[in-house]
Specification:
- The protein has 11 helices and 15 strands.
- It is elongated and about 80 Å long.
- The strands form 3 sheets. A 7-stranded parallel beta sheet has the order 9-10-11-12-13-14-15. Strands 1, 2, 3, 5, 6 and 7 form a 6-stranded mixed beta sheet that branches.
- Helix 1 packs across helix 2.
- With 369 residues, the chain is an alpha/beta fold.
């Protein structure tokens, strides 16, 4: 047996253990997700993996339930230790010893040929097995194989229901931590976006039942996302990884009390979405009168910002760029500029910033011909 050093891999590089003898209830999975969300995946207890030579992917010997919960939380890296040159006895020892803590044992699978001859008591696993092992009928398998590559690429209906249940449990009339006198929730810094993932699309322009894996922005009419403040589950279930936080309409003549309420709402929603695993770009596109209020709840060192580019408005971009520098503490902050003409694109290039052209759907293109 050989053991490699600890390293971090993407969840997509891992596949679940075929015929995993450990199962988990929805309540136990919810508890596990709560623990991982609060404490992270401890590197002192990494997933034990073994490479599959026929797919070049890593099969998880120990850590399948944590991986399932980790994926539901949309986390991006997993601590693993890779084993190689394992004997069947060594492999079974890792599978059985490492899986004692989370979930329940599948008695039928423990009686299959894979674990024949294992002394369960010697490894601290005390279970009562029937005297006559159940013989599975190959024509009528009782357990669906869970190592199908399609299961890793597409979420099953059961996993989707579990994920939605988690999102709804995270909702409530909470008072989140704050760093200001108005109680505007403070954002988390431990899962900030680093790069803008494509496609980047406006929320509500395409069908809301569409699965969209990357980024939504809210540089759209207010009515398109007003419902999200009441129930953001649709957004979470869309599969997107990150959003530019809602750009609610605030004008120079907006009453200050209303402007503060709008800023509170979008920051509260953003904190909730972060708690559910989503990454947030802080929107800076508000009138200068409310620029400082718009940064309430954005902690020092936060470094993921976005703004709306409009041709001829480079001075406004200069202000937003300086705000991002001040909050991030960096001379070159992580700022995405959305939309605008060639002059805005050129401004972004001069500042070495990401620029994304404004979305125009097919109907709009036809109307403009």
């Amino acid at each position: 047996m050989k053991v490699a050093e600890l390293r971090y891999v993407k969840p997509s590089e891992l596949v679940k253990l075929p015929g995993n003898p450990r199962t988990i209830t929805k309540q136990e999975l919810n508890t596990l997700m709560d623990s991982l969300r609060e404490n992270g995946w401890w590197p002192h207890r990494p997933a034990a993996v073994e490479r599959q030579p026929w797919t070049d992917k890593l099969v998880v010997l120990d850590g399948n339930q944590r991986l399932k919960a980790w994926k539901l939380l949309k986390k991006t890296s997993v601590p693993v230790v890779e084993y190689s040159e394992l004997t069947d006895e060594e492999r079974n020892d890792i599978i059985l010893r490492g899986n004692i803590n989370n979930g329940e044992w599948d008695i039928d699978l423990l009686q299959t040929e894979q674990f024949e001859g294992v002394d369960f008591g010697s490894i601290g696993l005390h279970i009562d097995l029937p005297e006559q092992p159940a013989i599975a009928d190959p024509a009528q398998p009782e357990h669906e194989p869970d190592n199908d590559p399609a299961n890793d690429a597409e979420e099953s209906e059961e996993e989707a229901l579990e994920r939605e249940s988690f999102y709804r449990r995270m909702m409530g009339d909470f008072i989140y931590p704050t760093n200001n006198e108005y109680g505007v929730p403070v954002l988390l810094k431990d899962n900030m976006p680093v790069h803008l993932e494509l496609p980047m699309e406006p929320w509500g322009v395409e069908s809301r039942h569409k699965v969209m894996r990357s980024t939504y922005h809210f540089y759209v009419d207010d009515y398109r996302f007003e419902a999200l403040f009441k129930d953001p589950i649709t957004l979470l279930m869309s599969g997107c990884k990150m959003i530019v936080e809602p750009n609610v309409s605030i004008h120079d003549n907006t009453p200050p009390a209303y402007a503060l309420w709008q800023i509170y709402r979008k920051r509260y929603l953003s904190r909730y979405l972060q708690e559910c695993g989503m990454q947030i770009w802080v929107d800076l596109n508000v009138p200068q009168r409310f620029a400082e209020w718009n940064l309430l709840g954005v902690p020092e060192g936060y470094n993921a910002f976005s703004t709306r580019g409009v041709s001829g408005w480079q001075p406004t971009l200069d202000i937003h760029y300086e705000q991002a520098k001040r909050v991030s503490g960096l001379d070159h902050p992580n700022l995405v500029v959305y939309g605008g003409g060639k002059d805005i694109q050129q401004w972004a290039m001069e500042h070495e910033l990401a620029w994304h052209p404004e979305f125009i759907n097919g109907k709009q293109r036809n109307d403009k011909k």
